[in-house]
Amino acid sequence: MTESATKHETILTVKDLTTSFKINNKFYKAISDIDMKIKRDEILAIVGESGCGKSTLVNSIMGLQDPSETKITGEIDFEGQDLTKISEADYNKIRGAKIGMIFQDPLSALNPLKRIEDQIEEVLICHTDMSKQERRARVLELLDQVGIVDPKRTAHQFPHQLSGGMRQRIVIAIAIACKPDFIIADEPTTALDVTIQAQILDLLKDIQKENHSSIILITHDLGVVAETADYVHVMYAGKIVEKGNVDQVFNNPQHPYTRSLLKSIPQVDSESDELYVIEGSVPSLQNMPATGDAFAPRIPWILASDHEENPSMHKLGHGHEVRCTCYQDFYFKEESDT
Ligand SMILES: Nc1ncnc2c1ncn2[C@@H]1O[C@H](COP(=O)(O)OP(=O)(O)OP(=O)(O)O)[C@@H](O)[C@H]1O
């Protein structure tokens, strides 16, 4: 852990963040009103269905969007530095060194033409002053840390010679090579089969504990959240609609979207074979309502007057927050028939 991290209990603070994309010469908001904090030693999961803005949020934090096509307003304070104001050169010093990234598809994250050891060493060359010998030793240490059984052999191999699970372990080794305080994992297990998924999630949790780092974990899988995270932010149509710890969000969900998401998970002990389906879909950027609750069209049986015109976050105590007053009046449609 770096000295700056020990001084700042909070690693990252995002304030009133909005990211808009240029489509046909007009900017449309993909995410807005984003306020969040992540503290040292925490795993924060961001969850929501496809198109909710999860990747846009983390790509904005990492400065990965094309500035000519993207407009970002608000603050992203990382260890005392506002990332929305720094140059690309300064971002390059942070990415890989202080913030590690793990992407969904390990195959496209790795260079097919380079040996594993060279790919891991590259990040050490960029961000440390280690000697060649020290770097080679660190590569083997990292491969061992991420659970590669024969580090020496794997170090000399190319990505195509490895299984999907092993490739994701290599991507994780690259992300943690410089012991970053903060790791962003964007759907890290989506491309893997179920047993390997569990191993990779266990590995992430072990790394977080060992390195005392903070992790933002992006996923659409609530099972992954329950298994791995300490805190959860639920996103819908570019906004955080509910935040809290895992217990609050899973055992006392409030926002209609969170409740619908949880209801749509298959239950092993359920008597019914039918899965709950959230009718409708996330609005596209061009169809995002300027005011009102973006989830309202998907729960049309709830009165318009139960929604706020400009839905704001409501504090429910102990860090649990929910957007819009409609949570107070929400019920599932079939509950009205019983
Ligand atoms: N570069 C871009 N230009 C225009 N629209 C974009 C761009 N990137 C994302 N979007 C749009 O922004 C919205 C949010 O997309 P985003 O990829 O952040 O969602 P997501 O929740 O990460 O979805 P997924 O789980 O499918 O990755 C979507 O409507 C998407 O089409």
Automatic annotation (TrEMBL):
Domain called ABC transporter: residue spans: 12-262
Asked whether the keyword Endoplasmic reticulum is assigned, the reply is no
Q: What Pfam families has UniProt attached to this entry?
A: ABC_tran, oligo_HPY
SUPFAM superfamilies, per the entry = P-loop containing nucleoside triphosphate hydrolases (SSF52540)
The primary site where this protein sits is membrane
Would you kindly state one Gene Ontology biological process term found in this protein's UniProt entry?
Answer: peptide transport
Any one GO molecular function term: ATP binding
Q: Per the record's keyword annotation, is Nucleotide-binding included, yes or no? A: yes
What is the topology of this protein in the membrane according to its UniProt annotation? Peripheral membrane protein
Q: Where in the cell is it found?
A: Cell membrane
InterPro entries from the entry?
AAA+_ATPase (IPR003593), ABC_Ni/Peptide_Import (IPR050388), ABC_transporter-like_ATP-bd (IPR003439), ABC_transporter-like_CS (IPR017871), Oligopep_ABC_C (IPR013563), P-loop_NTPase (IPR027417)
GO annotations of cellular component type: plasma membrane
Keyword entries, A-Z: ATP-binding, Cell membrane, Membrane, Nucleotide-binding, Transport
Q: Which family does it belong to?
A: Belongs to the ABC transporter superfamily.
Which PANTHER family does the UniProt entry name for this protein?
Answer: DIPEPTIDE TRANSPORT ATP-BINDING PROTEIN DPPD, OLIGOPEPTIDE TRANSPORT ATP-BINDING PROTEIN APPD
Tell me the protein's name: Oligopeptide transport ATP-binding protein oppD
Q: Which organism is it from?
A: Fructilactobacillus sanfranciscensis (strain TMW 1.1304) (Lactobacillus sanfranciscensis)
